[in-house]
Amino acid sequence: MYFIFESSYDELQEEADVAQAVDLPESFHEFVWNRLWRAEPIGPDFPALAFSVNPTTHLLDNHVTDTGDGIYSERLIQLLKETGVKHEAFPVKVVNRATGEVLRVKYYWFHLLEQADAFDRSKSNITPSGKVKGLKISKLFDVANLPIFRDANLPQIVLVRDSLRQLLDKSGITGCSYLDIESYGKQKRA
């Protein structure tokens, strides 16, 4: 059984706790679409990134950013590595929003290198513009060896196998939400 995996806003105290990109390269969103959402290594081409947080923010293991993706703690990266998830992890700086001081924490931009075609597009509800209103798993879908992966046709969607979800929960990993696939796109989002 799989769930859709996302960064969770639920554990943040307030909207201001979202980590904000500092001096994000102009081409970064294009870079995300053309490189990060593909299951191909990036290597040294990854840009240097920094994120600012309120000094009182409690950092989560999968911390929400204003880029639409989360930054992952060293603890989460290590756990994913130990479970055999194919990925790249690029260090990012986390700075105090008030002072600009670099915090002594280790966070990474996570690049997932696993991809599979999971959805039956004829039974899913996806608008011509790509807005997802409902998903159905394909009967042909069989990636029992992938604990977490990005969908090949809807790369904004990451799926996590229930066994990895349970391990993340048991390990106390914070900042993750797991959505039922069949209800994805149907719920109202903040």
Describe the structure.
- The protein has 190 residues and is α+β, with helices and mostly antiparallel strands.
- It has one domain (2-183).
- It is 14% helix and 29% strand.
- The protein is built from three helices and 13 strands; from the N terminus they run ββαβββαβββββββαβ.
- The strands form three sheets. It has a six-stranded mixed beta sheet. Strands 8-11-12-1-13 form a five-stranded mixed beta sheet.
- The model has no long low-confidence stretch (mean pLDDT 86).
Give me the secondary-structure topology:
Layout: E1 2-7, E2 20-21, H1 28-36, E3 50-53, E4 62-64, E5 70-73, H2 74-82, E6 87-96, E7 107-112, E8 115-116, E9 125-126, E10 132-134, E11 148-151, E12 158-161, H3 162-170, E13 176-180
Parallel strand pairs: 3-6, 8-11
Antiparallel strand pairs: 1-12, 1-13, 2-3, 4-5, 5-7, 6-7, 9-10, 11-12
How many extended strands? Answer: 13
Structural class: alpha+beta
| Silhouette | globular
Main β-sheet description: 6 strands, mixed
Q: How much helical structure, as a percent, in the residues?
A: 10-25%
Radius of gyration: 17 Å
Give the number of helices.
Answer: 3
Low-confidence stretches: none
Distance between the termini: 26 Å
- Domains (count): 1
Percentage of residues in strands: 25-35%
Mean pLDDT score? 86
Spell out the helices and strands N to C. EEHEEEHEEEEEEEHE
**Biggest sheet strand line-up:** 2-3-6-7-5-4
